[in-house]
Amino acid sequence: MRTLILALGNELMKDDGVGLKAGRMLIERGCDVLEVGTDIFRLSSYYDGEERLIIIDAILSEKFPPGEIVHLQGAEVFEKLKGEIRSAHFMGTIDGLRLLMSLDERLARAEIHFIGVVAKEIDLGMELSEEVEKALSKVVRLVEELCKN
User: Whole-model pTM?
Assistant: First the structure.
């Protein structure tokens, strides 16, 4: 199954850059990664019918501690990110992805995974908090495992 990994975030805003940093690690391991940054609509120019999309991003949550990894898939991505878990790019990412799925039936059929890392600090700076830094290698392993199936 062909997989496209979307690396989201803003690396100038501390923990918000975790998706981009994980994406770059996955590129080094030979994965197909698109660095979306904060613009989910870049997907429309690069999507080539991949059957699986894996989105990596920082999330905001009062329910989970910083550095916690949350894996959502399918409809759960759209349901849970509107509830107790919030993507740091909530409006652009989730609503944008829905719009893109309505415009491209191949994308609408794709298996969707969202890997979120609970952020501790979203503020000016390029370093990750200790908790999020520790989660980075686990995120990469999880994505690699998903790509094998």
Answer: 0.92
Q: CB of 63 within 8 A of CB of 32?
A: no
b/e string for 74-101 if b means 16 or more Cβ within 10 A? eeebbebbeeebbbbbeebbbebbeebb
Q: Cβ atoms within 10 A of the Cβ of 125, count?
A: 15
Q: Which two tokens stand for residue 41?
A: 């609509």
| Predicted local distance difference test score (pLDDT) of residue 86 | 55
DSSP symbol at 37: E
Say whether pLDDT at 57 is over 90.
Answer: yes
How far apart CA 54 and CA 73 sit, in angstroms, is 9
Amino acid at 92: G
Integer-rounded Cα radius of gyration of the chain: 14
